[in-house]
Amino acid sequence: MFHAQIVDYAYPLHAHDTWTVLILDAGAIRYDLDNRHCAVSGGDYVAVLPPGVVHDGRPAANAPGFRKRNLYLDPTFLPASLIGSAVDHTTFRDGPLRRALARLHQVLDADEDPLNAEARLAMIEQRLTDHLAAAPSTSTRPEPQAARALRALLDEHTVQAVSLAAAARLLDRSVPHLVRSFGQAFGISPHAYIIGRRIEAARKLLLAGIPPAEVAITVGFCDQAHLTRHFRRHTSTTPARYASVTGSRAASI
């Protein structure tokens, strides 16, 4: 979760490796999602931003700012095949969905019974899937060849990752088309793929005795904290502990 009140600030272009579901408690926000001009205000509106797609964010022209609640959901929470639809149809007016999201934030913030959160999350998943699956997409069908070409490009730039905008120019495709094609072919977003490749490279370097801080920079993470966050998500442990435990086992053998 992320709760914030934004005044006189504009988010730069960036992308998440998660599904991001946003509701506003006050004000209004404008954002560009892959060159589509989008907006959302309070009331019953819900915004959905798919993983791997570049966007920005700023207060709407007629609003002094906005107060928002973001929910970040694992990239596998919704099928990758829905990414294109989420780009084309990023906002919905759905009162029950909006209220379910608001209540889920309260449940998580209060650290209530996980079963309560799971039940609400299941309802949210179903309503989001229904919206996105029913929404007509203006984008072309997924293209396996484009997905393979993007994967090859990502493999060549694991450390200094190529941006999706640059990849789209090189491959003469749109960003949503590439993201949707990649997700359809491989089941994950391009960003998640790059993170996975970096984690695998980090494992090998850690086993070779390279310090975690050096490993982080070598494989393309900003710093050791960035590596640790993703490494723990992938392996359930920290880089330092992974290296020490596997190292001690190798010594005992």
TrEMBL record:
<dbReference type="InterPro" id="IPR003313">
    <property type="entry name" value="AraC-bd"/>
</dbReference>
<keyword id="KW-0805">Transcription regulation</keyword>
<protein>
    <recommendedName>
        <fullName>HTH araC/xylS-type domain-containing protein</fullName>
    </recommendedName>
</protein>
<dbReference type="Pfam" id="PF12833">
    <property type="entry name" value="HTH_18"/>
</dbReference>
<dbReference type="Pfam" id="PF02311">
    <property type="entry name" value="AraC_binding"/>
</dbReference>
<dbReference type="InterPro" id="IPR009057">
    <property type="entry name" value="Homeodomain-like_sf"/>
</dbReference>
<feature type="domain" description="HTH araC/xylS-type">
    <location>
        <begin position="148"/>
        <end position="245"/>
    </location>
</feature>
<dbReference type="InterPro" id="IPR050204">
    <property type="entry name" value="AraC_XylS_family_regulators"/>
</dbReference>
<keyword id="KW-0804">Transcription</keyword>
<dbReference type="InterPro" id="IPR037923">
    <property type="entry name" value="HTH-like"/>
</dbReference>
<dbReference type="InterPro" id="IPR018060">
    <property type="entry name" value="HTH_AraC"/>
</dbReference>
<keyword id="KW-0238">DNA-binding</keyword>
